[in-house]
Write the structure tokens for this entry.
Amino acid sequence: MEKKRTFSREAGRETGERRQSLCTVSKKCGGCQYVDVPYEEQLKKKQRQTEQLLKEFGKVRPIIGMEHPAHYRNKVHAVFDFQKGKGIVSGIYQEKSHRVVPVQSCLLEDQKAGEIILSVRELAKSFKIKAYNEDSGYGLLRHVLVRVGHVTGEIMVVLVLGSPILPSKKNFVNELCKLHPEITTILINVNNKRTSMVLGEKEQVIYGKGYIEDELCGRRFKISAKSFYQVNSVQTEALYAKAAEYAQLTGRETVVDAYCGIGTIALAVAGKAGKVIGVELNRDAVRDAVANARINRINNADFYQNDAGRFLTQMADAGEQVDVVFLDPPRSGSTEEFLDALIQISPKRVVYISCEPETLARDLKYLTGKSRYRVQEITPVDMFPYTGNVETCVLLSRKKSSGKSTKIEIEIDLNEADKRECIGTATYQEIKDYIWEHYQTKVSHLYIAQIKKKCGLDVGENFNKPKTEGNKVPNCPEEKERMIREALEYFGMINKE
């Protein structure tokens, strides 16, 4: 006689001899590694995972979990295909393949977004729109992307097509909006290349304003189809609250938000800082960031389209001073160029937000091993329940100087040495450390090189040339020149005037 089976919707467990998964396609999909693990156990697993990777840097605080860990994804994507016996289907790629697994509903995705995708699928059948075939390159409908404003309720639908022509476009839009009046904008995105990328370069707005808005951390944000916006709005607020706590802003600081996306972190902390600078490589995201600053009437935030490493290096070379740096790089982590520039510019605090603990551990090792930084606190945040992924927020602070100077005694007949001749050596970093120790002032490599040149010391052929033609090189201020000369005298590189 078969035992009676009971289920827990939250835990995904069955009591009795047999178990049934919360998701019928989880084994093929592979996206939810913990789909049938009770949520409290998921948190314990992620806590242990984070501790194992990061315990050498410091104590890992308890993970911040969700109260309701389901249907949290505000961005939902579906791929379309034609399958024999089923017709047109929508779903997700099978793990490590491009075979489409049909999906009716998903535990992670916003429910309304899931319903819209199913409606698009049914409308495609009735309008006789063919699904795109990756092997042959024929067909029209490739993907559908749905973005939902967590607070505003605004909904964007992006139809990714193999060509820019959607048959009976007006009728299709009317029918879709009739089924789902919550939709506020619809776009056609054209991707006619044989690529694994979902979105192509060309977009066409066919309904509404072409973007949605949402609220996060008390700010309003414009979100376009290609913009990066955290998929879990609830946990993002918890994450950014922790990051702001770590920054310890007083209202006077200069803050850099590296890999800033549409400016969410920068604008969230702008009210507590003196000046905020955001840098992002994605041009569309930068445009959104500028618009978001304007929407929120924030006047102390500037955004730049540039590589984060290159931008911070330029700031360091120009002698710019930064108090706090936020960085939220992609899964691959940051770059050595960026980390070297970070060490050079030497902010008081660094707040590192990571979605990949392994690359985070690599970058922390680089920062703590090559500089005077130490990890002060680590907090994991469960941004992706039911998956094996975890977000981590780390505070690094600059080590305080001991205040002790190391004296160097040199026995040399100064009468025999030319006043401009190099009679001692010191690295650029040693010179910078001396000035910081005595004056708590930062100087750039460029300024040091300029003064070394004035003193007749070798600095290399290209020390004072601009990185790009037409750019001006700043000259060292008189006060910093005096400090640099003092350091050169201290290290015996020039004689005392």
User: Anything to note?
Assistant: The CA atoms of residues 155 and 184 lie 5 Å apart. Confidence is low (pLDDT under 50) at residues 1-18, 402-423.
